[in-house]
Design a protein that fits this description.
By secondary structure, the chain is mainly alpha-helical. Helix content is about 50%, strand content about 10%. It has a two-stranded antiparallel ribbon with strand order 1-2. The termini are far apart.
Length: about 120
């Protein structure tokens, strides 16, 4: 067995274990959320049936996938598109900041301060 095939096998094992972990975790809270809430996207109000239920996702409001209270207070059901949009907004918030504490102060620098005096000196 070559080093490349051994590395590939190890990578496949790690990825399989990660997929199993995610599937097991999702199974618990997804099933509970689908029992608690109507099958409607919380953003666009699209309704779902058993035929297209796989397109309805559980979004964690605080973005912590391990925070799954029994009352479902950290979940909202979102369609695939709204869920992607919500995560894009969160990534932008993390990357660029947001909220009142990140508001910038107005600029105080005046690039033309002293221009009149400089022109007056040049004339004389």
């Amino acid at each position: 067995m070559t080093k490349d095939s051994t590395d590939r096998r190890k990578l496949d094992q790690v990825l399989d274990a990660q997929r199993d972990y995610i599937a097991q975790r999702e199974k618990g809270y997804r099933e509970r959320a689908l029992k608690l809430y109507p099958w409607v996207c919380g953003r666009c109000a699209r309704t779902f049936t058993r035929a297209n239920l796989s397109e309805l996702t559980v979004h964690h409001v605080n973005h912590d996938h391990d925070d799954n209270p029994p009352d479902g207070s950290n979940w909202e059901l979102l369609c695939l598109y709204c869920h992607d949009e919500e995560h894009s907004k969160f990534e932008s918030f993390v990357r660029y900041g947001g909220g009142s504490e990140s508001k910038r102060q107005a600029a105080t620098h005046n690039p033309f301060a002293g221009l009149k005096e400089a022109l007056d000196q040049k004339k004389s």
